[in-house]
Amino acid sequence: MDQFAVKVFVRLRPSVLDPAGEATKSASIKLGAEGIKSLRIGKMIEVKIEGNGENEVREKIDLLCDRLFANTVIEDYEYSLEKL
Amino acid sequence: MDNFTVGVVVFPGSNCDRDVSWALEGCLDIRTKYLWHESSDLSNVDAIVLPGGFSYGDYLRCGAIARFSPLINALDDFVKSGRRVLGICNGFQILTESGFLPGALTTNKNLNFICDDVELDIVSSKGGWFNDGVEKQTIKLPIAHGEGRYHCDSDTLKKLVDNELISLRYKNNPNGSSFDIAGITNEKGNVLGLMPHPERACDETIGGTDGLFTLKSLILK
Q1: Shortest CA distance to A13 belongs to which of B68, B103, B169?
Q2: What is the pTM of this model?
């Protein structure tokens, strides 16, 4: 069995308003940071997972992302995978 | 109807379960039974309410974890049998997360947790959940949510409109919901999800009775 470290990024779809991102953008500007054109907040989920090779692990992660980690009505996801 | 029993689902973090039970039993004389979320035996109930609250602490997303409980797994057959399911607030979030209703509920546009009475237009009485407009076309119900902004893509919205699945719309949209949507049904009409709390409007002494009709509708066939 191989072990993999997976980082899943879940983001609101571009078409979905992100009020928390807007509020943080506003605070960033008040802090004096200049030039911020856009600020959106997402989630990062770290998973350590075992499987027989990368393809099997990708299948598992795809299922997790699609059914649990992200609500694909409003969110997109992507992930990176590193063999340990 | 004497033995008609409404199952009120209790998740870890539900906090309107007792309110729903009180409203049904005390105001409408309808028998209720609490259903722990790990139960999958729905044979002794005739309708189900998924109450408001913060199931599983709203971890990940509101309703996302509750969706995997044994009870929600058993709900599919229950819904297909035509029996009624009412999801209030967190219950509505669970119904969208689990795919019984389309769309999703996410953070209010103004980021506030909004606790207020709102005016609602009855758009469709599909499933008979609301007055058909003969008596009232507008009702007032309390809302209490931080994540009640209904969102769906334009194709889904068109389907909701074309099939008269939108039950309630906010008169003054408090949370940024698409198309002012406050409540929707499935195509068959036996599943209703709404953000407002009908169980908190069942007695004049607590501010109104506009929620009675919806709770009473649970006994409709």
Answers
A1: B103
A2: 0.93
